[in-house]
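Any chance you could type out some protein's one-letter sequence along with its backbone structure tokens so I can compare the two?
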Amino acid sequence: MEALLTGADCPRWAGAEALAVLSDHFVAGDPKRSLPLLHEAEHWHQPVGGPVSYTQHERLATFSGALATAGRPDEAERLLAAISDVEGARAWGCAVVSLAAARVDPDRAQRLAEEAADLSFANFVLGPPDAVTTAVQALGCAGARDRAVELFERLLSRRGLTMVECDHVRTATAAGLWPHDPDLAGRLVGEALLGRYGGSVSRRAQHLVVVGPHDSELATSIKQVLHRQYGCADVALEYDDRVLLSLLTATVDPAAARRFIDASVSLYEGRVGPGSRTASAAVVYAALGDYEAAQTIARRKADEEGRSEMFAHVAAYVACIPSDSTDVPLIKDLRNVASLSRRLASLLLPPLSGADLPRA
């Protein structure tokens, strides 16, 4: 796979992104392989002439988080120094590395979370919602409760923030604060659940991922609501919602879940767009124990980057990486259902036989 990604026909940004994904999922089982992949990704990511775009800076920030997760926080910070704060990219990077370091280096995590917060409110102007939301989550994870609440309130009072964004800010803040202030975190999730858009399948699924490790009673209530509202009913649902409902249904009726995901894949095949969506179907098949079907779905994506992402998510599930093993920026789940479905599968349907590292 690495040889394919570094071949002459592979676009530089695609190769770099895919190598970073592969590296991130090798961290737990094979760190000696993970780090060289990260360095190769960083090398491939360097632009050939022309200005460095925001997207490139954001990807460098993601690489920094992967380095910190792999146990190289000093290298992660050196990479952060090369990132310009174009459209909040530097703030995003500091927050991502802070989240990665939160459980192993709390002092570093708090310092970087504070830096992310400062960058998010530079010159008394709030930065992009994604960066600010992740900074709030990082502050909460680092135990800076008061600063997190302050930035959270500033962000919610911002004009032009959509209802969906407000709901997501509450959920991400709760995820960060839960170990330090469970009462406040529970209230924030409660507000999100009552919100205008809190009832969508993807939003409920994210609430479940956040709540599950901390409050089993509330998690059960969320699952019951989803079962009552949707189940596997033949209703007009987006592909992403169908994937998430398949995982939920599999907890009570695996056969019905298999029929539902088969029908969903058949219905939407060729129409779902980004590879991450197809990858989420692969995760469902893995959770149902059909690894052959999971690999078949993963291989349908035409480009190498898409296939590498699909296999990386399935590998992470098979390796039993817990849904909360590392604090991650929840804001990205809004755009990548594969990440959300993998964490939901790990929470609700961990492999019965435990981690299968050779298969992963």
Q: What stands out?
A: Confidence is low (pLDDT under 50) at residues 1-19, 25-31, 40-54. The chain is about 65% helix and 0% strand. Residues 64 and 76 are 4 Å apart (CA to CA).
